[in-house]
Amino acid sequence: LNKPSTPEYQHDLNISYDTPLGFGVTVSSNYNSAVCAARMCVVKMPAVTILNAGIHQKFRNWNIKLDATNLTHEYAYRPRQYNGSAGQLITAMPLSRYNLTARFNFK
Question: What does pTM read for this prediction?
Protein backbone atom coordinates (compact mmCIF):
# COMPACT_ATOMS: atom_id res chain seq x y z
CA LEU A 1 0.00 0.00 0.00
CA ASN A 2 1.54 3.29 -1.14
CA LYS A 3 1.10 6.45 0.87
CA PRO A 4 -0.22 9.43 -1.06
CA SER A 5 2.47 11.97 -1.95
CA THR A 6 5.19 9.31 -1.57
CA PRO A 7 6.62 7.82 -4.78
CA GLU A 8 6.97 4.04 -4.85
CA TYR A 9 10.52 4.35 -6.22
CA GLN A 10 13.13 7.03 -5.53
CA HIS A 11 16.71 6.74 -6.77
CA ASP A 12 19.63 9.13 -6.40
CA LEU A 13 23.12 8.88 -7.87
CA ASN A 14 25.96 11.25 -7.00
CA ILE A 15 29.44 11.21 -8.54
CA SER A 16 32.23 13.58 -7.57
CA TYR A 17 35.84 13.78 -8.71
CA ASP A 18 38.59 16.18 -7.59
CA THR A 19 42.03 16.43 -9.20
CA PRO A 20 45.21 17.19 -7.24
CA LEU A 21 45.36 20.53 -9.12
CA GLY A 22 42.14 21.77 -7.47
CA PHE A 23 39.71 21.14 -10.33
CA GLY A 24 36.57 19.12 -9.59
CA VAL A 25 33.42 17.82 -11.25
CA THR A 26 30.13 16.73 -9.69
CA VAL A 27 27.19 14.99 -11.40
CA SER A 28 23.95 13.91 -9.73
CA SER A 29 20.70 12.37 -10.87
CA ASN A 30 17.39 12.07 -9.03
CA TYR A 31 14.50 9.81 -10.09
CA ASN A 32 10.98 9.75 -8.62
CA SER A 33 8.31 7.38 -9.92
CA ALA A 34 4.78 8.61 -10.62
CA VAL A 35 2.92 9.64 -7.50
CA CYS A 36 -0.59 10.68 -6.47
CA ALA A 37 -0.87 14.25 -5.25
CA ALA A 38 -3.50 13.44 -2.63
CA ARG A 39 -5.37 10.58 -0.98
CA MET A 40 -8.08 10.29 -3.65
CA CYS A 41 -5.47 10.24 -6.46
CA VAL A 42 -7.43 12.76 -8.52
CA VAL A 43 -4.13 14.20 -9.76
CA LYS A 44 -1.25 11.85 -10.56
CA MET A 45 2.14 13.41 -11.20
CA PRO A 46 4.35 11.70 -13.81
CA ALA A 47 7.69 10.07 -13.10
CA VAL A 48 10.66 12.40 -13.51
CA THR A 49 14.45 12.23 -13.67
CA ILE A 50 16.45 15.36 -12.85
CA LEU A 51 20.11 15.73 -13.85
CA ASN A 52 22.43 18.21 -12.09
CA ALA A 53 26.11 19.00 -12.66
CA GLY A 54 28.80 21.28 -11.35
CA ILE A 55 32.46 22.18 -11.75
CA HIS A 56 34.78 23.94 -9.34
CA GLN A 57 38.34 25.22 -9.29
CA LYS A 58 40.44 26.04 -6.24
CA PHE A 59 43.50 28.26 -6.58
CA ARG A 60 45.31 30.04 -3.81
CA ASN A 61 42.62 31.41 -1.47
CA TRP A 62 39.85 31.33 -4.10
CA ASN A 63 37.20 28.72 -4.83
CA ILE A 64 35.10 29.28 -7.98
CA LYS A 65 32.08 27.05 -8.56
CA LEU A 66 29.49 26.75 -11.35
CA ASP A 67 26.41 24.59 -10.70
CA ALA A 68 23.59 23.66 -13.08
CA THR A 69 20.34 22.26 -11.71
CA ASN A 70 17.82 20.38 -13.90
CA LEU A 71 20.04 20.33 -16.99
CA THR A 72 17.45 18.53 -19.11
CA HIS A 73 14.83 21.20 -18.36
CA GLU A 74 12.29 18.64 -17.04
CA TYR A 75 8.93 19.74 -15.69
CA ALA A 76 8.82 18.38 -12.14
CA TYR A 77 6.23 18.69 -9.39
CA ARG A 78 6.24 18.04 -5.66
CA PRO A 79 3.07 16.75 -4.00
CA ARG A 80 1.54 18.40 -0.97
CA GLN A 81 2.95 17.20 2.32
CA TYR A 82 0.33 16.41 4.93
CA ASN A 83 0.86 18.79 7.82
CA GLY A 84 -2.74 19.54 8.68
CA SER A 85 -3.16 22.56 6.41
CA ALA A 86 -5.08 22.59 3.15
CA GLY A 87 -2.30 24.33 1.22
CA GLN A 88 -1.53 23.72 -2.43
CA LEU A 89 -2.14 20.30 -3.94
CA ILE A 90 1.14 20.38 -5.91
CA THR A 91 4.13 22.69 -6.22
CA ALA A 92 5.97 23.23 -9.51
CA MET A 93 9.72 22.83 -9.16
CA PRO A 94 12.11 25.22 -10.94
CA LEU A 95 13.25 24.50 -14.48
CA SER A 96 16.95 24.81 -15.34
CA ARG A 97 18.92 26.98 -12.93
CA TYR A 98 22.57 28.07 -12.93
CA ASN A 99 24.62 29.36 -9.99
CA LEU A 100 28.09 30.90 -10.08
CA THR A 101 29.82 31.20 -6.71
CA ALA A 102 33.16 32.80 -5.85
CA ARG A 103 34.52 32.33 -2.33
CA PHE A 104 37.66 33.82 -0.79
CA ASN A 105 39.29 32.28 2.29
CA PHE A 106 41.03 34.93 4.44
CA LYS A 107 43.16 32.41 6.42
Answer: 0.79
